Amino acid sequence: MKIAFLGLGNMGAPMARNLVAAGHDLIGFDAQLTAVDGIELAASATDAVADAEAVITMLPNGDILRQVYAHIVPAAPAGSLFVDCTTADVDSAVAAAREAEQAGHLALDAPVSGGVAGAQAGTLTFMVGGSPAAFERAAPLLDTMGQRAIACGPSGSGQAAKICNNMLLGITMAGTCEAIALADSLGLDRQAFFDVVSTSSGQCWSVNTYCPMPGIGPASPADNDYKPGFAAELMLKDLDLSQKAAGASGTATPLGATASDLYRAFVEGTGTGKDFSAILKHIEAMKRRS
Protein backbone atom coordinates (compact mmCIF):
# COMPACT_ATOMS: atom_id res chain seq x y z
CA MET A 1 0.00 0.00 0.00
CA LYS A 2 1.18 3.56 -0.67
CA ILE A 3 1.33 5.24 2.72
CA ALA A 4 2.03 8.80 3.87
CA PHE A 5 3.15 8.97 7.51
CA LEU A 6 3.10 12.41 9.12
CA GLY A 7 4.80 12.86 12.50
CA LEU A 8 8.03 10.90 12.86
CA GLY A 9 8.98 11.44 16.49
CA ASN A 10 9.71 8.84 19.15
CA MET A 11 6.49 6.96 18.37
CA GLY A 12 5.88 7.71 14.71
CA ALA A 13 9.32 6.80 13.37
CA PRO A 14 9.39 3.19 14.64
CA MET A 15 5.77 2.67 13.59
CA ALA A 16 6.66 3.87 10.10
CA ARG A 17 9.75 1.64 9.97
CA ASN A 18 7.64 -1.40 10.76
CA LEU A 19 5.40 -0.57 7.80
CA VAL A 20 8.44 -0.20 5.54
CA ALA A 21 9.81 -3.52 6.80
CA ALA A 22 6.48 -5.15 5.89
CA GLY A 23 6.90 -4.03 2.28
CA HIS A 24 4.70 -0.96 2.12
CA ASP A 25 5.64 1.98 -0.08
CA LEU A 26 5.94 4.71 2.56
CA ILE A 27 6.93 8.34 2.44
CA GLY A 28 7.09 10.46 5.56
CA PHE A 29 7.04 14.06 6.67
CA ASP A 30 7.84 15.82 9.93
CA ALA A 31 8.04 19.60 10.14
CA GLN A 32 10.80 19.35 12.76
CA LEU A 33 13.03 16.87 10.94
CA THR A 34 15.11 16.85 7.76
CA ALA A 35 16.20 13.19 7.95
CA VAL A 36 14.83 10.04 9.61
CA ASP A 37 16.76 6.78 9.49
CA GLY A 38 15.17 4.27 7.12
CA ILE A 39 12.35 6.55 5.92
CA GLU A 40 12.12 8.58 2.71
CA LEU A 41 10.92 12.11 3.40
CA ALA A 42 8.73 14.40 1.31
CA ALA A 43 9.30 18.14 1.03
CA SER A 44 5.92 18.93 2.59
CA ALA A 45 2.89 17.30 4.13
CA THR A 46 0.82 17.90 1.01
CA ASP A 47 3.54 16.37 -1.15
CA ALA A 48 3.61 13.32 1.11
CA VAL A 49 -0.12 12.61 0.72
CA ALA A 50 -0.39 13.40 -2.98
CA ASP A 51 -0.30 9.75 -4.11
CA ALA A 52 -1.21 8.06 -0.83
CA GLU A 53 -3.77 5.30 -0.43
CA ALA A 54 -3.46 5.66 3.34
CA VAL A 55 -2.45 8.65 5.48
CA ILE A 56 -1.30 8.00 9.04
CA THR A 57 -0.74 10.86 11.48
CA MET A 58 0.99 10.86 14.87
CA LEU A 59 0.93 14.47 16.03
CA PRO A 60 1.45 16.35 19.31
CA ASN A 61 -2.14 17.45 20.04
CA GLY A 62 -5.61 18.12 18.73
CA ASP A 63 -4.96 21.71 17.64
CA ILE A 64 -2.09 20.61 15.40
CA LEU A 65 -4.21 17.72 14.13
CA ARG A 66 -6.92 20.13 12.96
CA GLN A 67 -4.35 22.40 11.29
CA VAL A 68 -2.65 19.50 9.49
CA TYR A 69 -5.93 17.99 8.28
CA ALA A 70 -6.98 21.35 6.83
CA HIS A 71 -3.96 21.11 4.51
CA ILE A 72 -3.74 17.40 3.72
CA VAL A 73 -7.38 16.34 3.30
CA PRO A 74 -7.84 18.33 0.08
CA ALA A 75 -4.43 17.16 -1.21
CA ALA A 76 -5.04 13.41 -0.86
CA PRO A 77 -6.45 11.26 -3.68
CA ALA A 78 -10.17 10.59 -3.54
CA GLY A 79 -11.12 7.68 -1.31
CA SER A 80 -7.95 7.66 0.77
CA LEU A 81 -7.86 6.11 4.24
CA PHE A 82 -6.99 8.52 7.07
CA VAL A 83 -5.76 6.94 10.33
CA ASP A 84 -4.96 9.38 13.12
CA CYS A 85 -2.90 7.96 15.99
CA THR A 86 -2.55 11.27 17.84
CA THR A 87 -3.71 11.37 21.44
CA ALA A 88 -6.10 14.29 21.23
CA ASP A 89 -9.34 15.60 22.68
CA VAL A 90 -12.48 13.87 21.47
CA ASP A 91 -13.84 16.99 19.76
CA SER A 92 -10.71 17.36 17.62
CA ALA A 93 -10.79 13.68 16.67
CA VAL A 94 -14.43 13.91 15.60
CA ALA A 95 -13.82 17.15 13.69
CA ALA A 96 -10.83 15.69 11.83
CA ALA A 97 -12.74 12.55 10.88
CA ARG A 98 -15.74 14.59 9.72
CA GLU A 99 -13.51 16.76 7.54
CA ALA A 100 -11.95 13.69 5.90
CA GLU A 101 -15.28 11.93 5.41
CA GLN A 102 -16.94 15.00 3.91
CA ALA A 103 -14.14 15.04 1.34
CA GLY A 104 -14.91 11.45 0.36
CA HIS A 105 -12.28 9.67 2.44
CA LEU A 106 -12.46 6.98 5.12
CA ALA A 107 -11.29 8.06 8.58
CA LEU A 108 -10.34 6.53 11.92
CA ASP A 109 -9.09 7.87 15.22
CA ALA A 110 -6.67 5.22 16.49
CA PRO A 111 -4.61 6.32 19.50
CA VAL A 112 -2.20 3.78 20.90
CA SER A 113 -1.03 2.20 24.12
CA GLY A 114 2.35 0.56 24.54
CA GLY A 115 4.85 3.40 24.47
CA VAL A 116 8.07 3.64 22.51
CA ALA A 117 8.99 0.03 23.25
CA GLY A 118 5.68 -1.15 21.81
CA ALA A 119 6.11 1.05 18.74
CA GLN A 120 9.57 -0.41 18.13
CA ALA A 121 8.46 -4.00 18.69
CA GLY A 122 5.21 -3.69 16.76
CA THR A 123 3.18 -4.66 19.83
CA LEU A 124 1.00 -1.57 20.25
CA THR A 125 -2.67 -1.69 21.14
CA PHE A 126 -4.88 0.53 18.97
CA MET A 127 -8.14 1.93 20.34
CA VAL A 128 -10.12 2.71 17.22
CA GLY A 129 -13.09 4.94 16.46
CA GLY A 130 -14.76 5.05 13.05
CA SER A 131 -16.83 3.08 10.59
CA PRO A 132 -16.57 -0.71 10.17
CA ALA A 133 -15.51 -0.17 6.54
CA ALA A 134 -12.61 2.06 7.56
CA PHE A 135 -11.59 -0.35 10.32
CA GLU A 136 -11.58 -3.28 7.91
CA ARG A 137 -9.46 -1.41 5.39
CA ALA A 138 -6.97 -0.30 8.06
CA ALA A 139 -6.68 -3.72 9.72
CA PRO A 140 -3.58 -4.89 7.80
CA LEU A 141 -1.73 -1.69 8.72
CA LEU A 142 -2.76 -1.83 12.37
CA ASP A 143 -1.76 -5.50 12.51
CA THR A 144 1.71 -4.58 11.25
CA MET A 145 2.23 -1.82 13.80
CA GLY A 146 0.58 -3.53 16.76
CA GLN A 147 -0.61 -6.73 18.31
CA ARG A 148 -4.20 -5.69 18.92
CA ALA A 149 -6.73 -3.27 17.44
CA ILE A 150 -10.04 -2.80 19.23
CA ALA A 151 -13.02 -1.23 17.48
CA CYS A 152 -14.54 1.03 20.13
CA GLY A 153 -17.40 2.64 18.21
CA PRO A 154 -17.96 5.68 15.97
CA SER A 155 -15.51 8.53 15.41
CA GLY A 156 -14.06 9.83 18.67
CA SER A 157 -14.55 6.53 20.49
CA GLY A 158 -10.89 5.59 20.20
CA GLN A 159 -9.87 8.84 21.87
CA ALA A 160 -12.53 8.39 24.55
CA ALA A 161 -11.18 4.92 25.36
CA LYS A 162 -7.59 6.19 25.45
CA ILE A 163 -8.46 9.10 27.73
CA CYS A 164 -10.35 6.87 30.18
CA ASN A 165 -7.63 4.22 30.16
CA ASN A 166 -4.85 6.71 30.84
CA MET A 167 -6.81 8.48 33.56
CA LEU A 168 -7.07 5.12 35.30
CA LEU A 169 -3.36 4.50 34.72
CA GLY A 170 -2.43 7.84 36.27
CA ILE A 171 -4.65 7.13 39.27
CA THR A 172 -3.27 3.62 39.82
CA MET A 173 0.36 4.72 39.48
CA ALA A 174 -0.16 7.53 41.97
CA GLY A 175 -1.94 5.13 44.32
CA THR A 176 0.81 2.55 43.93
CA CYS A 177 3.42 5.16 44.82
CA GLU A 178 1.43 6.31 47.86
CA ALA A 179 1.27 2.74 49.11
CA ILE A 180 5.03 2.30 48.59
CA ALA A 181 5.74 5.52 50.48
CA LEU A 182 3.57 4.37 53.37
CA ALA A 183 5.13 0.89 53.36
CA ASP A 184 8.59 2.46 53.49
CA SER A 185 7.55 4.65 56.44
CA LEU A 186 6.21 1.60 58.25
CA GLY A 187 9.50 -0.24 57.79
CA LEU A 188 8.33 -2.85 55.28
CA ASP A 189 10.94 -4.48 53.06
CA ARG A 190 10.24 -3.43 49.47
CA GLN A 191 10.63 -6.91 48.01
CA ALA A 192 8.28 -8.33 50.62
CA PHE A 193 5.79 -5.55 49.92
CA PHE A 194 5.94 -6.29 46.19
CA ASP A 195 5.53 -10.03 46.77
CA VAL A 196 2.38 -9.38 48.80
CA VAL A 197 0.72 -6.76 46.61
CA SER A 198 1.56 -8.40 43.28
CA THR A 199 -0.27 -11.55 44.35
CA SER A 200 -3.09 -9.95 46.36
CA SER A 201 -6.07 -7.70 45.75
CA GLY A 202 -3.84 -4.65 45.27
CA GLN A 203 -2.24 -6.07 42.14
CA CYS A 204 -2.40 -3.90 39.01
CA TRP A 205 -0.31 -3.08 35.95
CA SER A 206 1.49 -0.30 37.82
CA VAL A 207 2.71 -2.87 40.36
CA ASN A 208 3.06 -6.14 38.46
CA THR A 209 4.39 -4.93 35.10
CA TYR A 210 5.71 -1.38 35.56
CA CYS A 211 6.82 -1.33 39.17
CA PRO A 212 8.15 2.11 40.16
CA MET A 213 10.61 0.65 42.72
CA PRO A 214 14.13 0.18 41.29
CA GLY A 215 15.32 -3.41 41.37
CA ILE A 216 11.89 -4.81 42.20
CA GLY A 217 9.69 -6.80 39.81
CA PRO A 218 10.15 -6.97 36.02
CA ALA A 219 12.52 -4.53 34.31
CA SER A 220 11.00 -1.03 34.12
CA PRO A 221 12.14 2.59 33.73
CA ALA A 222 12.76 2.65 37.49
CA ASP A 223 15.76 0.42 36.79
CA ASN A 224 17.15 2.96 34.31
CA ASP A 225 17.05 6.13 36.42
CA TYR A 226 13.43 6.66 35.32
CA LYS A 227 14.34 7.45 31.72
CA PRO A 228 10.97 7.71 30.00
CA GLY A 229 9.09 4.82 28.60
CA PHE A 230 6.06 7.08 29.03
CA ALA A 231 7.05 10.59 30.00
CA ALA A 232 5.46 12.38 32.95
CA GLU A 233 4.59 15.30 30.62
CA LEU A 234 2.56 12.95 28.43
CA MET A 235 0.73 11.53 31.42
CA LEU A 236 -0.14 15.07 32.49
CA LYS A 237 -1.38 15.81 28.96
CA ASP A 238 -3.66 12.75 29.06
CA LEU A 239 -4.94 13.52 32.55
CA ASP A 240 -5.75 17.06 31.46
CA LEU A 241 -7.63 15.65 28.46
CA SER A 242 -9.60 13.44 30.84
CA GLN A 243 -10.55 16.43 32.95
CA LYS A 244 -11.56 18.43 29.89
CA ALA A 245 -13.79 15.54 28.82
CA ALA A 246 -15.18 15.16 32.33
CA GLY A 247 -16.04 18.85 32.46
CA ALA A 248 -17.71 18.78 29.05
CA SER A 249 -19.80 15.73 29.97
CA GLY A 250 -20.59 16.77 33.54
CA THR A 251 -18.90 13.67 34.97
CA ALA A 252 -17.41 13.69 38.47
CA THR A 253 -13.82 12.35 38.41
CA PRO A 254 -12.39 13.33 41.81
CA LEU A 255 -9.50 10.86 41.67
CA GLY A 256 -8.71 11.86 38.10
CA ALA A 257 -8.63 15.51 39.17
CA THR A 258 -6.33 14.70 42.08
CA ALA A 259 -4.01 12.69 39.83
CA SER A 260 -3.93 15.58 37.37
CA ASP A 261 -2.95 18.00 40.16
CA LEU A 262 -0.24 15.61 41.40
CA TYR A 263 1.30 15.19 37.98
CA ARG A 264 1.16 18.92 37.27
CA ALA A 265 3.10 19.63 40.47
CA PHE A 266 5.55 16.86 39.58
CA VAL A 267 6.15 18.07 36.01
CA GLU A 268 6.48 21.69 37.12
CA GLY A 269 8.98 20.55 39.74
CA THR A 270 11.47 17.77 38.98
CA GLY A 271 9.44 15.53 36.68
CA THR A 272 10.14 16.95 33.23
CA GLY A 273 12.10 14.39 31.21
CA LYS A 274 11.36 11.59 33.67
CA ASP A 275 9.11 8.57 33.33
CA PHE A 276 5.65 8.99 34.83
CA SER A 277 6.47 6.31 37.43
CA ALA A 278 9.11 8.64 38.90
CA ILE A 279 6.25 10.38 40.67
CA LEU A 280 7.22 7.99 43.46
CA LYS A 281 10.03 10.39 44.38
CA HIS A 282 7.65 13.34 44.34
CA ILE A 283 5.18 11.60 46.65
CA GLU A 284 7.95 10.43 48.97
CA ALA A 285 9.11 14.05 49.33
CA MET A 286 5.64 15.35 50.21
CA LYS A 287 4.79 16.11 53.82
CA ARG A 288 1.48 15.05 55.29
CA ARG A 289 -0.91 17.86 56.13
CA SER A 290 -2.98 17.23 59.26
UniProtKB/TrEMBL annotation:
<dbReference type="InterPro" id="IPR015815">
    <property type="entry name" value="HIBADH-related"/>
</dbReference>
<dbReference type="GO" id="GO:0051287">
    <property type="term" value="F:NAD binding"/>
</dbReference>
<dbReference type="InterPro" id="IPR002204">
    <property type="entry name" value="3-OH-isobutyrate_DH-rel_CS"/>
</dbReference>
<dbReference type="InterPro" id="IPR006115">
    <property type="entry name" value="6PGDH_NADP-bd"/>
</dbReference>
<dbReference type="GO" id="GO:0050661">
    <property type="term" value="F:NADP binding"/>
</dbReference>
<dbReference type="GO" id="GO:0008442">
    <property type="term" value="F:3-hydroxyisobutyrate dehydrogenase activity"/>
</dbReference>
<dbReference type="Pfam" id="PF14833">
    <property type="entry name" value="NAD_binding_11"/>
</dbReference>
<dbReference type="GO" id="GO:0006574">
    <property type="term" value="P:L-valine catabolic process"/>
</dbReference>
<comment type="similarity">
    <text>Belongs to the HIBADH-related family.</text>
</comment>
<keyword id="KW-0101">Branched-chain amino acid catabolism</keyword>
<dbReference type="InterPro" id="IPR008927">
    <property type="entry name" value="6-PGluconate_DH-like_C_sf"/>
</dbReference>
<protein>
    <recommendedName>
        <fullName>3-hydroxyisobutyrate dehydrogenase</fullName>
        <ecNumber>1.1.1.31</ecNumber>
    </recommendedName>
</protein>
<dbReference type="InterPro" id="IPR013328">
    <property type="entry name" value="6PGD_dom2"/>
</dbReference>
<feature type="domain" description="6-phosphogluconate dehydrogenase NADP-binding">
    <location>
        <begin position="2"/>
        <end position="151"/>
    </location>
</feature>
<dbReference type="InterPro" id="IPR011548">
    <property type="entry name" value="HIBADH"/>
</dbReference>
<feature type="active site">
    <location>
        <position position="162"/>
    </location>
</feature>
<dbReference type="InterPro" id="IPR036291">
    <property type="entry name" value="NAD(P)-bd_dom_sf"/>
</dbReference>
<dbReference type="InterPro" id="IPR029154">
    <property type="entry name" value="HIBADH-like_NADP-bd"/>
</dbReference>
<feature type="domain" description="3-hydroxyisobutyrate dehydrogenase-like NAD-binding">
    <location>
        <begin position="156"/>
        <end position="282"/>
    </location>
</feature>
<comment type="pathway">
    <text>Amino-acid degradation; L-valine degradation.</text>
</comment>
<keyword id="KW-0520">NAD</keyword>
<keyword id="KW-0560">Oxidoreductase</keyword>
<dbReference type="Pfam" id="PF03446">
    <property type="entry name" value="NAD_binding_2"/>
</dbReference>
